[in-house]
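[09:14] KT: can someone run the structure on this one? pasting the chain below
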Amino acid sequence: MTVSVATSSRDMIEGALARAVQFPRLRYMGSKYKLLPHLARAFADVDGATALDAFAGSGVVSYLLKAQGYQVTSNDFLNFPSAITRATVVNQTVKLTAAEVDTICGEPADDRDFIRRTFDGLYFTAADREFLDSAWSHIDLLKGHKQAIAISALVLAAARKQPRGVFTFTDLRYDDGRRDLHLPLRDHFRERVEDYNRVVFNSGQTCQTRSGDVFDLPAKSYDLVYLDPPYAPPRDDNDYIKRYHFLEGLSVYWRGQKLMENTKTKKLEKKYTPFSYKRTIVDALSRTFEQFKDSTIVLSYSSNAIPDAGTIKDLLGAVKSDIEVREIDHKYSFGTHSTAQRRDVSEYIFIAR
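[09:31] RB: done, structure tokens below
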């Protein structure tokens, strides 16, 4: 019989946090690494055992939920978060061996050159681009969780090597001399595999992951639904494809992806989401709350986003009678350009029962 995690003690919360802070850190717009202690307490207050992380992003919150004993379903509309959560949340015991890493880092298994040709002169050195093609020639031969770890490590290696972790520019304007920016991708990959191997653990609970629109999730009742939707910022944008298109393509070797050859960055075609636009986000949030009205909803939201906290509370109030709002001081930036200064904002955690 599944035991509720609502009775988690302080020691259990601290133990889950100790695991979660070891999670390999991907620099990702809206990531909740700094809010993990607040989220852990909110999750421990929910009476239940099954949880959905509907907008998984970097995967760290899905991993925290696993560490707190939940049976986790992780979802994101991009592909690479599903690879990360498959490697760290769904996977309970599998790791990549040193011999397997040596093979991936060794001579190529075939003569593929898609990355070398397509991204010639962009982002990385010729040797790094050659390594990415070669690595994928071996990753294609892996199966299951081993493949997921390898893809996750490759994605994180590419993100760490690229200044600011985003692919909206192709030059070295942000090269500040950090080791990550000059370490060869082959060496990055070896280190990132160690990072992912280190966080594999058996929670004793079956978890799953998927990639798709939140509104296409199969009808299922969860005890807890965590929502961290893309914010509609008052300025700039929240276009994840624009920032992370290379990671998205790399996670599937660009199979099934529409590459925009005429763009300087060789980005992917933008995926529509109603959460990105001021004119559609209120309806999108309302539909999401209605979709999960039978679950306890825990939602993260920023005071710097649209709509405001009062509107969020009203929308939740249409489907829930008990709404708690916890306000946390937080530094956050929506952009990576020179005018997007990190500024003090309030991060809200709504708990709607």
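[09:33] KT: thanks! The CA atoms of residues 274 and 280 lie 5 Å apart.
[09:34] RB: yep, looked fine to me
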